[in-house]
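lol ok so funny story. i was supposed to be doing the assay writeup but got distracted and ended up predicting the structure for this chain instead. priorities right. anyway since i did it might as well share w the group, maybe its usefull for someone
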Amino acid sequence: LGVDTGLFKPDENINKYSSGKKIKLLYVGMIVERKRIHISIGIVLELIKNGFDNICFDIIGPIISNSYFLELNSLIKKNNLEANINFINQLPYKDLIPYYQAADLFLFPSDRETFGMVIIEAMACGTPVAAINCFGGPSEVIKHNINGMLTSLEDYSLSILKYFGDPTNHIQIKKNAIQTVLNDYSLKNTYTALQKSI
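and the output, tada:
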């Protein structure tokens, strides 16, 4: 399990969030109930209620559940979030990179995950991940407030609000996210681990 850090890397020309600028949120993955994208839509609403009204949330991936997709659209319309949330069809692998690079935070609210390649793809591009602490997956990679956010569902919203309310540690968390991937999840390290195991 590794990512090509020659492709998935930060774009240093992109200025990430600082107080007063647009917040760019991202989700990449299947649009299906178990991914709990509705929680991320709730995060957008909470941020707006707390004064962060300049928000863009891109949801990229294939629609696996049409009923859930309709439910999400209904939730968006009910809360007048049409201007803030975009659905984007599944993209070729390399076309995801600019979205990862531009995002301020990757939202990963699922509580039933194995590893989740999208986590390390986002981190490799300098985008911290906000995830739910569940068995496996995110807890193997993310250290709370060190290289991303790892919380209970109850604390998920508050943790993200605190993150955007105090941007002073954003640069360090971004650096730590990148370094985590370079240290543990690059293709070179994956190759070395496979070589040793064989």
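The chain has a mean pLDDT of 92. The longest helix spans residues 170-184.
back to the writeup now i swear
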